[in-house]
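Minutes, project check-in
Item: structure for the 296-residue chain
Input as provided by the requester:
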Amino acid sequence: MYIPDFEYYAPDSLDEACQMLAQFGGRAKVLAGGTDILPKAKTFSPIAPPQTPLPEILVSLKNLEELKKIEYVPGKGVVIGALATHNDLVNSELLNKKYMSISEAAHQMANNQVRNRGTVGGNLINAVPSADLPPILIALNASIKLVSVDGERVLPLEELFLDVCVTCCTEKEILTEVVIPDQKMTGSNYIKFGARRSGALAIAGVAVAVEVENNVIKDARIVAGAVAPTPIRTKKAEDFLKGKEVTAELLEEAGVIASGECKPITDIRGSAEYRTNLVRVLTKRALRKAIDQGHV
């Protein structure tokens, strides 16, 4: 396999990285774990076109240790650096204590080799509809920080995604961190269905976060993945649940409502009808687990 020629830079600071992106413009792209951009650029011969053309310039973030953190900041919440790997999420004592649903979602991704290299920032910026992290992070009301030479902006994670593999992140911006705010939610869960038990792309996935008191649902956030161009909040199902006592019938109906809010496609991995039915079932199961969990 061959990789086309490209220029490579590894700045020692975030400021330097931002300066490079501003200087090179659309000729450059950020390199994090490289588990997506490099394999897609490989060809079987020096003259064969790659699946995805490689940028002229890659700006690696590997030296930016501050982007690898996973820590709790009082008054802010849990901060996950964009360079934290998927296995960092799996093995984080903090996440396993406060947000086990994130660790469990990361553990379902790809294989161990990819989890050792793939990063949180890369998973989000790639904006692949079947990605596992966006649904659970959105369900937990996560926000992100984008940094450039022009300053920084913070926005809800759900506003990052515009279309299939398209985000609002500009050529000059770098996603630096994800913040999960302190929660009133009492439980959360992510369930996906793929062609294999683990490591497969999601045919459909559902993440939920709920606040339950005295067996009554006070608040709920439900996010479906792989069933629309972007992760989708099923707000009708959320509103339906609020203020109601938990019953099997309630969760079943919430699944039906959630499935009706999705916009799945038919492809080689499953039909639109199949995905719609999966959302119904996964929503019911994820809600049940989150409610029984008693903690996020």
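Outcome recorded: The mean pLDDT is 94.
No further action items on this chain.
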